[in-house]
Amino acid sequence: MFRVLVATDGSSFALHATEFVAKLCSQIKDSEVTIIYVIDPGVVSAAAMTPTGVPIPSALMLPQELEKAAAQALEATKQKVASCAKVTTRVERGKPADMIVKAAHEGKFDMIAMGSSGMGHISGLLLGSVSDRVMHHAKVPVLIVRPAGDGK
């Protein structure tokens, strides 16, 4: 069995990577795809406070909105690969790169696939992108898929 961990954040980059994985898995018998979406609690914590550290009451809704976004991203991603592989989904909480690497190791996946950029591509320029961190810390091959026509 060929097992792929697909990391998604719901971005067009992640969906493009999933389409590539679907093509790959359609050529490999007995493929299994697990789609992972990671909710970063640091984003929730930062959004729930004013600069002076006062909690923002309306930010209490933010975790529910993140759960909804995760469910939507997982469903959209699942639809891209459901016809060619057995698919499972999971939501994790933590630093995205760390959780993806941990899930790949613990799940004994053959490969990790992800888009070259995602929802956090601006912060990635400042802090180092999730795909870059996964690529450098994973013990399995990492497939980074660029969008079609990306001349970089």
Explain what this protein looks like in three dimensions:
By secondary structure, the chain is of the alpha/beta class. It has helices at residues 12-26, 41-47, 62-81, 96-106, 121-127, 130-137; strands at residues 2-7, 31-39, 86-93, 111-115, 142-145. A 5-stranded parallel β-sheet has the order 3-2-1-4-5, sandwiched between helices. β1 (2-7), α1 (12-26) and β2 form a beta-alpha-beta unit. 31% of the residues are buried.
Helix content: 40-55%
Please state the overall shape, judged from the principal axes of the Cα atoms: globular
How many runs of DSSP E, i.e. beta strands? 5
Low-confidence stretches: 121-128
Report, as a whole number of angstroms, the end-to-end distance: 34 Å
List keywords for this structure.
alpha/beta, 21% strand, 152 residues, globular
